[in-house]
Amino acid sequence: MNNASRAALLLPLLALAACGADAPESGERGAETPVAPVVVYSSRAEQLIEPIFTEFTKSTGIPVEYVTDDPQPLIARLQAEGDVTPASVLLTVDAGNLWFAAEQGVLQPVESELLTQTVPAYWRDTQNQWFGLSLRARTIIFDNRKLSAEDLIGYQDLADEKWQGRLCLRTSKKVYNQSLVAMMIAAVGEEQTEAVVSGWVSNLAEEPFSNDTRLIEAVADGRCEVGIVNTYYLGRLQREQSLPVSIFWQPAEFGGVHVNVSGAGIVKHAANAEGAARLLEWLATDGQTLFASKNLEYPVLRSTANDPIVEAWGDFDASEQSLVDAGRYQADAVRLMDRVGYR
Description:
The chain has 343 residues and is of the alpha/beta class. 41% of the residues lie in helices and 15% in strands. It contains 14 helices and ten strands. Strands 1, 2, 3, 4, 5, 6, 7, 8, 9 and 10 form a ten-stranded mixed beta sheet that branches. β1 (38-42), α2 and β2 (64-68) form a beta-alpha-beta unit. It starts with a helix and ends with a helix.
């Protein structure tokens, strides 16, 4: 074979080798494989969760897709979808809703040392099917032009006739009040709780309000002197204006201030259980600052700084009563409130 013939044969081989020099080696990806998203069914407001999910994606590279609705429809949807659900996480407010989701069999136990070390046992499910991710204190507020903290004792004392025509409450239809009454039933029994709630009704200055914001405004307007609210509603108003309303942090019951949670669990038939676990762990650690700043809630990770508005309210001792009780006794609480005419 002459040199010309040899060169003609080598040229294609050299060209192939040149092309292969930049080709990916065996096992390397020629293009990035898309990362599976975590689909979240959430009862939390979109304006709160979207920036939190955006930060999670920036931190981990895991995209998040979400559907928002009320808790009960989301739980019913998970039941209907069964093992073909696209969802991996249920995120909702109130331990009563989380307890109900676990009871309906739509969540699964989560094995995570990080979560169990971060979230105290009384703020999570006994089988680790859901975890509290932010705390919401539901305590007494008062008109500081007429009262001081020394005039107050606690939730049950608001049933005393001295508060007749001075108390305002949110409707019993809201799960926050249902959970408060449920926790009271677990702590002091149904008979004593019924006497307390009946006393509340007798002491109302006005018909129950549809939300905590209107209740706070009624106290500020002097239409009532005391009420029971989730503190972040006061914080939202204080961002915009100064109000003659103060928080009472020393109720004598439950071993401390009644707190509830917003929280989450991994769906039983999660499409992306690994990504879901990473999301829950991130929300319980790196995401805590966002919960504290976006909605003025208290972080479950105690080393996380509070928002300055919240910090100005001072410290309090939170009840360590198990929030499982909020779900376990919620049906009893609803029936009790109906019996005494708390609407």
